[in-house]
Design brief:
The chain is built from 16 helices and 8 strands. The protein is of the alpha/beta class. The chain has an 8-stranded mixed sheet. α1 links the parallel β1 (15-19) and β2 (38-42). The longest helix is centred in the C-terminal third of the chain and has 23 residues, at 314-336. The structure holds nicotinamide-adenine-dinucleotide (NAD).
Length: 396
Amino acid sequence: MEKTQNSKLKTHNLKVGIIGSGTMGIGIAQVASNAGCEVFLYDANAAQTEKSLSGLKKTLNKLTEKGKLTAEKANEVFNNIKPCTDISGLKDSDLVIEAIIENKEIKTKVFGELESFVSKECIIGSNTSSISITSLSSELKNPERFIGIHFFNPAPLMPLVEVIPGLLTDKDVPQNIYDLMKSWGKTPVFAKDIPGFIVNRIARPFYGEALRIVEENIATPQEVDEVMRTIGNFKMGPFELMDLIGIDVNFSVTQTVYKDYFFDPKYKPSLLQQRMAEAKLLGRKTGKGFYDYTETGSGKQEALPSTINQQPTSNQQAIFMRILSMLINEGVEAKRLKIATDDDLELAMQKGVNYPKGLLAWGKEIGYEKISETLQNLYDDYQEERYRQSPLLKKM
Ligand SMILES: NC(=O)c1ccc[n+]([C@@H]2O[C@H](COP(=O)([O-])OP(=O)(O)OC[C@H]3O[C@@H](n4cnc5c(N)ncnc54)[C@H](O)[C@@H]3O)[C@@H](O)[C@H]2O)c1
């Protein structure tokens, strides 16, 4: 196999191809263009590109009106993005970032096509949320040029980017991408190529345990959200967040993580979430999810005042400790497995999904014995592996 030349990636006048102009693709295009790159944007659905570009124009206008961007810079950001009606429009790219549908077969087919016309030096990155980077790269002619470059939603606002080398990635590529992301104003962290990488693995119980609490009639989605916001200071509760992410998207990530961990019960998907996806109650994008966002609905949950008094009830406290203990246990297990450095684990949860604190710091603050005791009680009650503790937890 011929090897690509991976010298240092230039950070000026870089040509960046983006495949997929949906939620993530257009956001990444904006970030790259804002950093001075020439951006080539392609989507199989040309109407989507048009729609996304007109949305971007509106966003840039708003930023200009608010004085956050000069009119000149806004024009530059918009004009630097060149829509392409054919994927071959990306042929001169130094870097291509793929942000199409989360489907391994479709992504692999696109990479095959891409490799037939881009230069050997072109780095190919995927924004996949959960598909193994190594498995995607293994289908390429030059897998050493391939890497995970995982942005968070909305890409222009969330600072975190997980940089994920696969087993076949050339050793220079991760540092090149890390440096590039820094030059784009992002907060990059290196992550191991494991299911869910850092954030999507550690955050699983935020959704999964919350869904279970509702399935077991312990509390309603509204009550769980309020507990997590009020006691935990999370910006959004799990159900509000699932409605924002898309219940289908969140369910699909959980399924991939569960399957790729060989059906570890910790990540078992929820029947309730499956039913919601089947019913196309997908959250904000379809108007209804755990909340109702239609004209007549009461979806503006975040505007509701808290009904939790100064002193939460014991049930509210138990819900909070149950979800948080599961999260801290995942954080500790990620530390044990060295999925990333301790600092990056802390940074990732705060900069990727807005957690109010790093989970390791939070565990220390509450006391790891208390976390361990909460999990032990859950284990005793349920007799399920789901509640097993990280071997490191008791040593913390
Ligand atoms: N939505 C999120 O919160 C989020 C966050 C991080 C990463 N991701 C990942 O980013 C990727 C894109 O997600 P999204 O939310 O932007 O999806 P999206 O549905 O908004 O956009 C995907 C776009 O890909 C296009 N597309 C599909 N097949 C194509 C093909 N063969 N060639 C070219 N274009 C094609 C579609 O027309 C669509 O416009 C996925 O891998 C997803 O897992 C999503």
